[in-house]
Amino acid sequence: MGIRQDLKKQALGMSQMAVEKLMADEKRAMAIAQALGSVQRGKQALDRGQEELMRVLSFAPRSDFKAVGKKLSGLKRRLRELDEKLEEIARQ
After folding, report:
1. Which side of the chain, N or C, has fewer Cβ within a 10 Å radius?
2. What is the pLDDT of residues 24-61, one digit of tens each?
3. Is the predicted pLDDT of residue 5 greater than 80, yes or no?
4. Cα angle 12-15-16, degrees, rounded to a multiple of 5
5. d(C-alpha 59, C-alpha 20), whole Å
6. Contact yes or no for 41/33 (Cβ under 8 A)
7. Cα–Cα dist 25/14, whole Å
8. Rounded to an integer, what is the distance from CA 54 to the centroid of its chain?
């Protein structure tokens, strides 16, 4: 085993122990869980607000770009399939 892997293993063990100590107290664990929940709800609200603002300003929101990207990927795959079929027909 190399030095890098040893250090990685030690760091993982130390971080696991730190999290165990942090979560050992039930009140602290509940507070952390509530804080994480608040952060997630805040991020979702921010994302919704950002999408709404983009629509109001007549800009395409991120979700539209993702949808177009998925469609484009599907079209590229279909084009490759058709190209392969044309090559097969040309060889015959």
Report:
1. C
2. 888 998 999 999 999 999 999 999 998 899 888 888 88
3. yes
4. 85
5. 46
6. no
7. 18
8. 21
